[in-house]
Amino acid sequence: MAKKPRIVIIGAGMAGLTAANKLYTSTSFNDLFELFVVEGGTRIGGRINTSEFGGNRIEMGATWIHGIGGSPIHQIAQEIHALESDKPWECMDGLSDELKTIAEGGFELNASIVDPISTLFKNLMDFAQGKPTEDSAGTEDVRYYNFAAKEASKGCTSNGGFGNHSVGAFLRQGLDAYWDSSKNREELRGYGKWSRKLLDEAIFAMHENTQRTYTSAGDLLTLDFEAESEYRMFPGEEITISKGYLSIIEYLASVLPPGVIQLDRKVSSIEWQPEGHQSVEMANVFDSRPVKIHFCDGSVMFADHVIVTVSLGVLKAGTCQDSGMFNPPLPFFKTEAISRLGYGVVNKLFLQLSPTGNRKANVTDKFPSLQMVFHPSDSDLRHKKIPWWIRRTASLCPIYNNSSVLLSWFAGKEALELETLSDEEIINEVSTTVYSLLSQPHKEVKSNNSHEFCNENVKSIESSSESEVRFVKVLKSKWGSDPLFLGSYSYVAVGSSGADLDTMAEPLPKIGSCESSSVHPLQILFAGEATHRTHYSTTHGAYFSGLREANRLLQHYHYVGNLI
Ligand SMILES: Cc1cc2nc3c(=O)[nH]c(=O)nc-3n(C[C@H](O)[C@H](O)[C@H](O)COP(=O)(O)OP(=O)(O)OC[C@H]3O[C@@H](n4cnc5c(N)ncnc54)[C@H](O)[C@@H]3O)c2cc1C
Ligand SMILES: *[C@@H]1O[C@H](CO)[C@@H](O)[C@H](O)[C@H]1NC(C)=O
Ligand SMILES: *[C@@H]1O[C@H](CO)[C@@H](O)[C@H](O)[C@H]1NC(C)=O
Ligand SMILES: *[C@@H]1O[C@H](CO)[C@@H](O)[C@H](O)[C@H]1NC(C)=O
Ligand SMILES: *[C@@H]1O[C@H](CO)[C@@H](O)[C@H](O)[C@H]1NC(C)=O
Ligand SMILES: *[C@@H]1O[C@H](CO)[C@@H](O)[C@H](O)[C@H]1NC(C)=O
Ligand SMILES: *[C@@H]1O[C@H](CO)[C@@H](O)[C@H](O)[C@H]1NC(C)=O
Ligand SMILES: *[C@@H]1O[C@H](CO)[C@@H](O)[C@H](O)[C@H]1NC(C)=O
């Protein structure tokens, strides 16, 4: 009697559970497959990890539905009523109304200083992403922005053909062009040693830092310019999920019978048969299933098809040495794509404000959505006590209107450093930073006339004797050092391209090499966010990739089924 094909999905994150859900719901009526999801961790969800902090529902990983129009995640969230809240959650609703931008030294920057640079940055990114730029006001500034974007793009085309132009270089060319075209702007007074140009640059850098967390490219000079315009977002609002991102995962998993998902089953290597069976004996050794999965506990499992959904970071680590995850090693075209694509670290830090202490001031009852503008790295004007790992963090914001829980995002080296720090170190250094921003202009950067200009809100915080900002508790993610993830999400690095994302998705053995009848087709399939050309780095990208690989197998067996 012929055995049912066995499909083993490695990883119970969004991609793996979507594939399992699709395979199971499409075939449960005829019980076509034996299906397993093996997960190295002790929970499902992968880079989705809804948690709790200070009585609030918060997300350690995936946070936003990036555009609700047409998003399958949004559709599920609506169907299962996951958008209705039963307790406070991370919704970031105060963001737009309450932004307060403060430059190092304690100088609050009003809209007339911040907005031109924010608009410049936004227009440059829109240009890089191939979106039409807003031409609303028709003001002089709009001319600058368009000019800047065009000038900066010239830099790219002159470098074109090589395809190694970066978003970071483009942005800086845009800023230079903006300065060139707006030379005669009035110098600022009353901002200590901050000149107009220094402030422009530092505000620009703040936006770059936000972009680093969006893309996970620790350095925007490594983010490929060409590929930026291939990335797709859904239209509409970006929202968080009140019942938690995990509710989507639980819904997908809920259809699977007990025993399908196996937790704490970390795969150490995958043996496969690119050349087919050498002999009948070999075939028997392999139980007639071509793939042999080895687990860290020494156990093994045979399969006809494996869907690998581990992160790009895990693949990078598992394919760089001989002692790799695949035996025989993955073919060159695969390992090249894996090594060329970018995969960075992004972490979230939650801090709970002390209910007393800073609150006695009766000013910080409502902590502002704070945008932080720091001196550039080469500046000797830097406040000595603000640590380097906070200096590339763009904001510190309450997780909802009036929440006493604040959130910051970190990327790159800074995100990795955060993982190594103790709670106490974090509390001390963030407090020092916030205090120095919310206090009056600091002595080191105080200019002779700065006292005349200091901002009223800043003054009122300073005037309280209890003005030091205090935190009682912190929670941070550690995606970079967790061996099951080794980072946060993928990006197209300079030297790579969208084609590499397509290559990531190709099943093995490579199509065409299966003509020899002894080679089993579709032994190793690949899903996960890093296998989607236009929606990489997102939960819906992972979702689409899971559907894609489930459909690939369904199609494969549908064809065989017709023959019988
Ligand atoms: C901080 C952060 C913020 C984010 N914010 C957003 C956001 O706002 N919006 C958005 O859309 N996306 C966001 N993302 C990205 C999103 O979380 C991911 O793109 C998506 O969840 C990836 O799903 P996946 O199934 O591809 O991979 P994963 O979720 O990584 O699933 C892979 C699974 O494989 C398991 N595994 C790894 N190695 C092994 C092994 N050897 N054996 C067995 N199992 C193994 C892992 O434990 C994991 O469960 C964010 C991610 C992070 C880290
Ligand atoms: C998930 O979040 C909890 C905090 O609530 C944390 O203890 C755990 O380590 C996190 N898991 C991962 C894999 O990040
Ligand atoms: C948040 O609070 C402010 C007043 O402090 C108010 O203007 C704003 O509308 C509130 N936003 C939401 C989403 O409730
Ligand atoms: C911003 O500050 C400038 C001078 O520093 C002032 O002229 C302008 O009115 C202020 N704008 C707002 C919106 O407060
Ligand atoms: C990449 O770009 C730099 C200039 O930014 C150029 O000097 C270099 O030759 C390019 N490399 C490749 C491989 O195209
Ligand atoms: C805080 O301010 C409000 C008015 O804004 C006032 O009614 C209240 O008494 C103040 N509380 C303290 C402790 O000063
Ligand atoms: C938030 O706090 C402000 C004052 O600090 C208050 O006016 C407002 O009503 C509060 N909003 C909510 C939603 O609690
Ligand atoms: C302040 O002004 C004095 C002279 O008026 C000058 O010597 C000094 O350098 C100035 N200090 C700063 C910090 O600008």
UniProtKB/TrEMBL annotation:
One of its GO terms (molecular function) is polyamine oxidase activity. Its cofactor is FAD. It is found in: Cytoplasm. Residues 14-554 form the Amine oxidase domain. It comes from the Eukaryota. One of its GO terms (cellular component) is cytoplasm. Pfam families: Amino_oxidase. The keyword Ribonucleoprotein does not apply. Keywords: Cytoplasm, FAD, Flavoprotein, Oxidoreductase. Belongs to the flavin monoamine oxidase family. This is Probable polyamine oxidase 5.
